[in-house]
Amino acid sequence: MFKKLLVAVFGIGIAFGAAASIADNHADMGGCESCHADGEPSQDMVHELQQCHDCHGELADMGEPHVHHDGMLECTDCHAPHDQEAATDAEAACESCH
Ligand code: HEC
Ligand code: HEC
Ligand code: HEC
Ligand code: HEC
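Above: the input record for the complex with heme C. Below: its predicted structure, written as tokens.
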């Protein structure tokens, strides 16, 4: 937990490059291990999703468009860490439900 906080604090000032995926940008900060236990994807992604919350908090506290989906959606319903390069790419997901 302490290591994660440290990574998050040091990461705040880093501007993410435009060409790499969200996952690669995270891996540059803390390795694949920052999301995957031992760097290996799990079967159910429960561990991975818990890591998102440990660093970013809860949807209820994250502002638009997050707040509307607290208790309903997972981060990966909108963000595909390996297939998207920026947070705003998640806008493409809206129309699949709304
Ligand atoms: C920001 C968190 C994050 C980081 C860092 C990350 N991943 Fe992932 N990874 C995910 C999530 C979430 C998924 C499942 C959803 C998806 O496929 O986008 C995933 C899926 C995968 C899969 C596919 C697993 C499957 O069953 O389809 C592989 C392989 C993988 N990651 C490898 C890596 C490697 C290697 C690294 C380091 C270079 C890495 N990941 C870094 C979050 C991350
Ligand atoms: C309903 C779809 C949706 C869900 C679910 C979602 N996001 Fe987002 N997120 C977005 C969109 C769209 C943006 C871009 C907002 C903007 O800047 O205009 C964004 C922006 C962000 C940003 C950058 C801006 C900021 O608010 O700091 C981060 C970090 C982020 N999301 C993390 C997460 C995490 C972590 C989760 C899960 C706990 C999550 N998101 C769940 C759609 C979503
Ligand atoms: C070890 C801490 C950590 C973990 C785990 C983590 N993040 Fe992040 N994430 C950060 C930091 C630090 C940044 C860069 C500063 C910021 O934008 O908040 C970031 C940035 C982001 C961004 C914004 C990318 C952009 O366009 O600037 C998104 C989206 C995001 N994370 C989603 C996720 C999701 C989804 C997960 C889980 C699969 C996750 N994060 C796991 C620390 C983490
Ligand atoms: C996986 C399905 C899913 C995705 C993707 C999704 N939403 Fe939602 N959204 C819901 C559900 C379920 C609710 C709560 C029920 C409802 O009010 O429709 C909701 C509620 C909302 C609300 C509250 C107001 C309302 O319509 O009731 C807003 C605003 C909203 N979403 C915007 C967005 C935006 C913007 C995006 C894309 C960044 C997005 N949603 C992506 C499922 C989704």
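Notes for the reader.
The helical segments are 2-11, 22-30, 46-56.
The chain has three helices and no strands.
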